[in-house]
Amino acid sequence: MINKNNYAVLLLSCPDKIGLVSTITNYISENSGNIVDLDEHVSSAEKTFFIRIVWDLTNFLIPIDQLNNEFEKILKKLNANFEIKFLSKKSRTAIFVSKYDHCLNEILWRHSTNDYPFEIPLIVSNHEDLRLIAEMHKIPFYFFPIDKENKMEQELKEIELLNEQNIDTIVLARYMQILSPNFVKKFPNQIINIHHSFLPAFVGSNPYKQAYQRGVKIIGATSHYVTEVLDDGPIIEQDIIRISHKEALNDLVRKGKDLERLVLARALINHIEHKILVSGRKTIIFD
Amino acid sequence: MINKNNYAVLLLSCPDKIGLVSTITNYISENSGNIVDLDEHVSSAEKTFFIRIVWDLTNFLIPIDQLNNEFEKILKKLNANFEIKFLSKKSRTAIFVSKYDHCLNEILWRHSTNDYPFEIPLIVSNHEDLRLIAEMHKIPFYFFPIDKENKMEQELKEIELLNEQNIDTIVLARYMQILSPNFVKKFPNQIINIHHSFLPAFVGSNPYKQAYQRGVKIIGATSHYVTEVLDDGPIIEQDIIRISHKEALNDLVRKGKDLERLVLARALINHIEHKILVSGRKTIIFD
Amino acid sequence: MINKNNYAVLLLSCPDKIGLVSTITNYISENSGNIVDLDEHVSSAEKTFFIRIVWDLTNFLIPIDQLNNEFEKILKKLNANFEIKFLSKKSRTAIFVSKYDHCLNEILWRHSTNDYPFEIPLIVSNHEDLRLIAEMHKIPFYFFPIDKENKMEQELKEIELLNEQNIDTIVLARYMQILSPNFVKKFPNQIINIHHSFLPAFVGSNPYKQAYQRGVKIIGATSHYVTEVLDDGPIIEQDIIRISHKEALNDLVRKGKDLERLVLARALINHIEHKILVSGRKTIIFD
Amino acid sequence: MINKNNYAVLLLSCPDKIGLVSTITNYISENSGNIVDLDEHVSSAEKTFFIRIVWDLTNFLIPIDQLNNEFEKILKKLNANFEIKFLSKKSRTAIFVSKYDHCLNEILWRHSTNDYPFEIPLIVSNHEDLRLIAEMHKIPFYFFPIDKENKMEQELKEIELLNEQNIDTIVLARYMQILSPNFVKKFPNQIINIHHSFLPAFVGSNPYKQAYQRGVKIIGATSHYVTEVLDDGPIIEQDIIRISHKEALNDLVRKGKDLERLVLARALINHIEHKILVSGRKTIIFD
Lengths: 287, 287, 287, 287
Known about the structure:
The structure is a homotetramer. Chain A is α/β, with parallel strands linked by helices. Helix content of chain A is about 30%, strand content about 30%. The model of chain A has no long low-confidence stretch (mean pLDDT about 95). Chains in contact: A-B, A-C, A-D, B-C, B-D, C-D.
């Protein structure tokens, strides 16, 4: 839920060793921070420690603008990767779309409920089809038509726009263009895609057709962070739905829409509520 | 359920055309058969008609031993493939195992409940490990050790045994040997395998390890008819279970056992209750 | 899917006896109707026969306006209840709402996709809150405020409006008023409600609060036809979602919205695609 | 999994206040305990703090036999309820059965896998039916026939037996007798029952019949701790399975068996792996 409280979130991973939890929680307590939520995980295979701590900043002795520096001092000896987020601050999320409207509508509805901590400063598309929906919701719609020749140039403009608008999260809501490695590198673990299959089955194009031809009894959808390799990034969320011989290919497409929009929405929510740590090709989700 | 009634089942597929249902149901009614269950499906993509009809033989005018011949006369003009089965007759099912006992135990328990129409005349294995379980259930256990040299010869002995025992269904309950094409051809759509992944993801060996390394959020199991291509036969049943970052590889293996045994059992039940039609690489399941 | 073909649907139930399928399918075939889909069920407990047949009217010898009369002649000897529907004709669906928008938005989006055979001639509400959404979708919005004094009178006006507009289906999309028996009787098996629990658990008000206090591990939603007894009509669709101790009451409410809108949408789709037969307090769904 | 390591588990709840996590983790770290797993939850509605900590005892400075006393000193100022368990110590689980074998077989199979930390010193029954299964598994079988007259007396003998055998967990594996309050009080949060419905729907006897008559689309099973009020104790695990109009009452019973045994097994596993805290009528499950 959108949290009106003055809470900070620490997301941290580091090599495992003795005393990590007490070192970190001690530091927060000594500075008068009340921990309201804590999740910890040790991957015994990789000997890595992961933690998410939420604490109340009301009486916290370290000023917000010095938080990163002060934690840096403590955490550098742990050889830790960490981020500090604030639950009162909404994510600035850009939505990329092409022609399908189901994922876009789902996210716009979630946004309208005020149940989730994000705002949508802009919608980007390589087609004009969904401009009307954007306008109905009074959200600026940017049209960047893309072909082989202009792709790099258009992406640079998109990146510029996203930076100007302080976008921290990009949702590919059935965006039918592959982003270039250059684009992807600019937003590590910030671009969320929905693939309409149960990855790693049916990578690439027309997964419903592939599923139909294989005669599977279950279809799936997968939401993942985008990396430079197609449909290969860390998986955030997956779900499935049963199908039967009665369903023709267009029924799979119709049913699949319900899966895609829910799976993408759930992935987005975990991301903007700062519940995800990425470790190599995997995600740790403290939900 | 095991049906004490005197019911026949017709499983039929043929090119679709007008009047098929009435032609067939008419024939049964005219001969005083009371239809108690009927499922029909037309695949509009392949223009193929599928039907399953269950009728009461009590007052049926055609003697059982002439059923096939008489239906043949009617159905040949439809260019139909068909089978007639009797619900009062139990399937004679052979179970092939290696070292894992979870699927074997599941099927033995199902058998013991008398809830399902099958008997288990024998268990075949390439290892001795599970002999004790077979003996506890008083089921003959046949040991056929297999190596590269003796494989063809041993399989011939197995085929001979299966034929002698009038086996109509073979369950590969985590049998860790690939059957040769020669063996498979002898039992078309009669050999049911369980693969411990959500096919077509993670074909081949060590699917849990593959799943663990990919960081999927859901693992699956797939039961399918065995064809000459590995893990490629018509899928009968699939199911999934959620996993999280907390689960190590051996947890996936442990959790997966529950999936494997249930998915295999459900596939077997549909098979022995004569609810499955095979069409190319797909199954039509009238459950 | 919306079916552009010229198909008729027969939904029929009657006491079970020999030869029903062939009598009915014969009649259709003799009149040059090609059956494209058929589902049949015999309830052995109640000795009742249920069937749904879809056939192509293209070359059908009986004119559409005489279909009911001609079938009546054939079917009266069977002591059958039956309806004939046309897949090319869209359902005229009225949506009743109060203040919650999630179910309304879901149905409006489904409508916009053109994937389902219904139109929405009007939205009725006892509050003004959702008028704007209706207007954005250019659907007439009728405001009928209701209190103890005016309830009967307002319902009469609503009934008049629904009749004028030839409404055949009424969806209570989280409509927070109990319809009077008089209203309900006018639309038997035509009013679809969504209750935000797994019925029959947590009947009545505040089901999420009841669920939270009971400490259940799963919450549900139930869509059913409305009868004169509250939350007691024939169930069309149910689904569930897992919850954990981490979820506070408002999290249940938030998660439950996803369930409610999907369960209601699926029930509506089965209804408008003429896949439901009602038998006493149960539904037969040929999906 | 059965953990060969020398790990301790602390399960603790207390009124929430600032610094709890650091106080506790500090104490463990200062005594050279390496925390390998930690889960924490604050119920904001009840202002209660819950924590589960697993740490390595290898270099722990406090001897095992003084653990409780030493923690008592630290934790009494927190007004905490706590337990300390050892993962290397197997639970001593007694199984109570009557005539149904599916839950018993499930638990015996789990036991045989060595995947779970429990042993089964004895099986208790009010019928002789399942003695053979106990004998096949070489587990002592105690027959305590129960009628109105002898119930109290027999229960006292059972309690004596359970105490003699140091039983810490009792599984009612479809045990068809209601335990008296006197019995229940002796084993608080140690008796696990399986009820064959989705509680609180269909409390009491014949839940499948109740479900069948209500026409639900989903059936469920619920495993819970036994309290003095029938089917009312804290819920540990629930799951469901879809049914359709095709299923007769005995099909529900048959399908339900699969649910019951899995739900009961999962509840038992969480209990014996010390992952459950009970808070009033609810469970906190750190899985």
